[in-house]
Amino acid sequence: MEILQLPHYGWWSILPPLVAIILALITKEVLSSLIVGILAGALIYSHGHPVSMIVTTFTIMSEKMGSNANILIFLGLLGALVVLVTRAGGSAAYGEWAIRRIKTRKGASLATAALGCIIFIDDYFNCLTVGTVMRPVTDRHRISRAKLAYLLDATAAPICIIAPISSWGASVATYMQDANAGNGMTVFVQTIPYNLYAFGTIFMILIICSTHFNFGSMAKFEKNAIEKGDLFSNEEFAEEAKVQQNFRKRGRVYDLIIPILSLIIFTVLAMVYTGGGFTGEASFTESFGNCDSALSLVLGSFCALVVTFFLFIPRKVITFTEFFTGITEGIKSMVPAFSILILAWTIGGICGSDYLNTGGFVGNLVNDSSFPVFVLPAVIFLVAGFLGFATGTSWGTMALLIPIGAAICTPANTAHLLLPVFGAIMAGAVYGDHVSPISDTTIMSSTGAGCNHIDHVSSQMFYATLVTVCATIGYLIMGLLNSPWIPLAITLVLIMVSILYFGKASQKKHPIQYNDIH
Predict the structure, then answer these.
(1) Of the candidates 231, 255, 342, 204, which has an alpha carbon nearest to the alpha carbon of residue 81?
(2) Would you say 139 and 112 are in contact if contact means Cβ atoms under 8 Å apart?
(3) Is the pLDDT confidence value at 123 over 80?
(4) Poorest-confidence range of 11-25, 48-62, 297-311, 489-503?
(5) How far is residue 360 from each of residues 5, 183, 347, measured CA to CA in Å?
(6) CA proximity to 13, closest of 353, 344, 340
(7) Are 89 and 247 contacting, i.e. CB atoms less than 8 angstroms apart?
(8) Spatial CA neighbour of 407 closest among 348, 478, 476, 345
């Protein structure tokens, strides 16, 4: 309760995040909205002095960049690794391998989903790589481009958000740490079971890929693909979208697998090292809670790059010059992520206890109200979903809502809901990003699949929203039980029952003749 006793700026303290949220909803552009919110907060803190406002803004920004420098380095190294693996042709080799071995429609769907789960280090890398690799496989088995785009989108953000060793995990951990919720990576790992939307989406993919159930507008696309060989169902886009492919034929499947495994293994070892596991200061499991997660990610990604160098260069998969050119291009590809992270850290800083203390004010409001606290996870889940849908960015949504969620859960009567609320924020942000037509991940999924963007948005909307409805019920139960397991089980059961109901109803209304397609 001590944070609530710190001075705050009253209702003025909520203006910066409020301005950022409203502008994001109006403009559909999160960077400019965050900038205006930051300047509004700095102006309030500076009591209207413009020079002091600018000094305050860049003071906070430089402090945040300095304290989070390792995250920026990790993202740059991760971008480099992504570009190098793509250039080496590892993903292209996987696609060729899959074409020779996958014999059924179900196998093609499951292989696409599996590859999407394996490439969890970054959602951009996931969408473009898996789409390019698996498109020839799914085309051969008459899987519509709309279905392929859904599989790409559903294994991008929903997988990344529950993977600690990813660009998402690293970023969300910093949001949580800046919100004074404890060790960012530890809290992030603890919230994973509370992300009902992510697990619900993964469960739904497994059922959809393993059965012939299709419903909503997706049923129309699948029916045309199976019965007529029409993968597009849209004359305007009947000519396959041209996606740049910069692959080399010398790559092998292990050129994709070894760099990813290296990143995982070395990052885990680095976490044990920075947490004192190698010096005897802590046990193996305790070292994960004590580790410097940002430094561990830097060490892990750097070691993975070294492994990649010795994997590619001696075999002349790519040249020495191409390797370091790829590193430069990879770092450049992360500039959008750098921008939103720095601005998110800055607005979090201006709203922090050292400045406006927005958390203290919001926490007091909740503490003094008679609001039924058990509905908080469900309400925040829906708010995050709406904001993510309207802005098209889950990172921006989480950056705005995690500090507010932490503040709401500061009072004694809501402290037990911290993990459910964090889980609900991440789940809602991913849902909103998943179904938003202006989301970069949604756009890249339709691009990677060579699918009409609106066809992709409309066909996956029903699927994603079905999971959201079931997850909302799960969050209501979670608010009462304060445990993730029973709500998660109930959510999954509801999803399965819903798929069976809508799938069978769709089959009766629009039966599909599979013939020799299995």
Answers:
(1) 255
(2) no
(3) no
(4) 11-25
(5) 7, 20, 16
(6) 353
(7) yes
(8) 348
- In the prediction, which pLDDT does 128 show? 65
Instruction: Tell me how far apart the alpha carbons of residues 66 and 110 are, in angstroms, rounded to a whole number.
Output: 43
What does the block give as tokens for 331? 């770092």
Rounded to whole angstroms, the maximal C-alpha distance in the chain is 74
**In 3D, which of 497, 510, 503, 418 has the Cα closest to residue 180?**
418
Query: 27 falls in which pLDDT band (50, 70, 90)?
Result: confident
Radius of gyration of the chain, Cα coordinates, nearest whole angstrom: 23
Residue ranges of alpha helices (H) inside 351-484 are: 358-368, 376-391, 394-408, 418-435, 440-449, 453-481
3-state secondary structure of 162: coil
Instruction: Note the pLDDT of residue 425.
Output: 94
Handedness of CA 260, 265, 266, 270 (dihedral sign): positive
CA distances from 37 to 8, 9, 20, 349, 358 (A): 17, 15, 5, 12, 13
d(CA 89, CA 326): 13
List the structure tokens of 483. Answer: 């445990």
Euclidean distance between CA atoms 284 and 273, whole angstroms: 9
Query: How many DSSP H helices and E strands does the chain contain?
Result: 25, 0
Give the Cβ contact number of residue 306 at 10 Å.
12
Share the mean pLDDT of the chain: 82
